[in-house]
């Protein structure tokens, strides 16, 4: 498996543990992405130097795409230095991804426009025909295949480290709760299957449940389950909005982007770990 997925192990990795994979798993994506951005800016500049589609709408879009791509690269490199200084990729590209979206849109516009111009105006007898055609093919490959592919890998690395940060924050909050046994017990009772299921949906609409509580509890009593299974079953009974409320209270960043089952798995692992430490 290429990615060091924090949810794939029994123990959720810390930032320090994730950083051990920097050279083996992350470095190729982290450094290849800015190289591709630089190549994109250079090739767009070379195309302008060849005066192809000059005095056209393509000129404006090409210049703007070069400027925004350069800005993206600049902010990314700054975040790269900070990330290696802190040994933490959760902040990689914090200032560049919005600019990158604008740069990507302008680059797509420029490449589409120039491709149309090539089809309509460029002749095989032109002096720079072969060079312009080669540059255009490389640009299309960069903007539609390579850059999006490497961009998503960088985002995934970033999300893995941010998830680990969320877990650390959660554990700190649990530690604070443990200082007040009554408050901690009240919090953990949310995940106790022995209490009335109706109490689980105090903050939600109980009509959203599509199961019979008494039958489910009776079945659980017949088949003893591990704490992990009990927590997971209880979370699965909660509406998605309730899971979001729990994640929000625990300050788990990025929970809005997780699917219901992914959020359930995350909460199950975190809560099970805390139970094992009790």
Strand and helix layout:
Blueprint (H helix, E strand, L loop, with lengths): L14 H5 L2 H28 L7 H30 L10 H25 L7 H50 L2 H8 L24 H10 L4 H11 L2 H10 L10 H18 L1
Helix pairs in contact: 2-3, 2-5, 3-4, 4-5, 8-10
How helical, in percent, are the residues?
over 70%
Can you tell me the number of structural domains?
Answer: 2
Strand content: under 5%
Distance between the termini: 33 Å
What is the SS-derived class? mainly alpha
Query: How many runs of DSSP E, i.e. beta strands?
Result: 0
Number of helices: 10
Instruction: State mean pLDDT (0 to 100 scale).
Output: 75
The main sheet comes to: none
Order of helices and strands: HHHHHHHHHH
Task: Supply Rg.
Answer: 26 Å
Low-confidence stretches: 1-10, 193-215
Quick one: overall form?
Answer: elongated
Pfam families: Rho_N
Transmembrane segments: 28-50, 62-84, 96-119, 131-152
Keywords: Membrane, Transmembrane, Transmembrane helix
InterPro entries: Rho-like_N (IPR011112), Rho_N_sf (IPR036269)
Give a summary of the structure in a few sentences:
Pfam families: Rho_N (PF07498). By secondary structure, the chain is mostly helical.
């Amino acid at each position: 498996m290429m990615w060091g997925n924090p949810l794939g192990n029994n123990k959720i990795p810390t930032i320090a543990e994730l950083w051990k994979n920097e050279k083996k798993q992350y470095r190729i994506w982290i450094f290849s992405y800015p190289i591709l951005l630089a190549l994109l800016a250079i090739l767009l500049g070379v195309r302008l130097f060849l005066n192809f589609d000059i005095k056209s709408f393509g000129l404006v879009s090409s210049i703007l795409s070069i400027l925004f791509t350069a800005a993206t690269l600049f902010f990314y490199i700054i975040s790269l230095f900070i990330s290696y200084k802190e040994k933490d990729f959760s902040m990689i590209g914090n200032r560049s991804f919005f600019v990158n979206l604008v740069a990507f849109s302008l680059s797509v516009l420029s490449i589409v426009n120039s491709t149309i111009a090539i089809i309509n105006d460029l002749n095989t007898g032109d002096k720079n025909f072969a060079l312009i055609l080669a540059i255009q093919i490389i640009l299309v490959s960069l903007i539609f295949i390579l850059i999006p592919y490497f961009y998503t890998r960088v985002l995934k690395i970033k999300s893995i480290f941010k998830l680990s940060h969320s877990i650390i924050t959660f554990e700190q909050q649990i530690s604070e709760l443990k200082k007040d046994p009554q408050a901690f017990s009240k919090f953990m009772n949310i995940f106790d299957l022995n209490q009335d299921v109706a109490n689980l949906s105090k903050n939600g609409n109980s009509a959203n449940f599509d199961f019979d509580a008494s039958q489910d509890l009776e079945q659980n009593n017949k088949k003893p389950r591990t704490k992990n299974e009990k927590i997971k079953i209880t979370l699965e009974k909660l509406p998605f909005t309730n899971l979001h409320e729990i994640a929000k209270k625990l300050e788990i960043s990025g929970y809005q982007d997780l699917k219901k089952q992914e959020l359930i798995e995350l909460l199950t692992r975190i809560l099970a770990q805390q139970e094992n430490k009790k």
